[in-house]
Amino acid sequence: MLWTILTVVAVIGFVTHLKGPNAVWGTATLGIPIGLVIAFFQTDWDWWIVGKSVVVAAVIGLAFEILGKLTERKA
């Protein structure tokens, strides 16, 4: 259930941040090689580890984007 919620949040983050470079896509891209390295060192290869790494990275990127919007100064 937790991974379903996190995946939905990540997909919403991907859809809402389609244009231009942003933290959601950047951290998700960084999550791919991290997940591949983690999966490589496990006893059995599991693609879910790579997927979970991308989801967690995208949620972290979404948090960065939201925090950035909250702290912008209104001039």
Walkthrough of the structure:
- The longest helix is centred in the last third of the chain and has 24 residues.
- α1 crosses α3 and α2 packs antiparallel against α3.
- The model has no long low-confidence stretch (mean pLDDT 92).
- The protein is 76% helix and 0% strand.
- The termini are far apart.
- The chain contains 3 helices and no strands.
- With 75 residues, the protein is mainly alpha-helical.
Assign an overall shape.
Answer: elongated
The secondary structure category is mainly alpha
Task: Give the helices and strands as they follow along the chain.
Answer: HHH
The overall strand count is: 0
Strand-residue fraction? under 5%
Separation of the first and last Cα atoms: 42 Å
Number of helices: 3
Q: Measured on Cα atoms, how large is the radius of gyration?
A: 14 Å
Query: What is the average of the pLDDT values?
Result: 92
Q: What's this entry about, in short?
A:
The chain has helices at 2-16, 23-40, 47-70.
Task: Give descriptors for this structure.
mainly alpha, 75 residues, 76% helix, 3 helices, elongated
How is the topology of this model organized?
Blueprint: H1 2-16, H2 23-40, H3 47-70
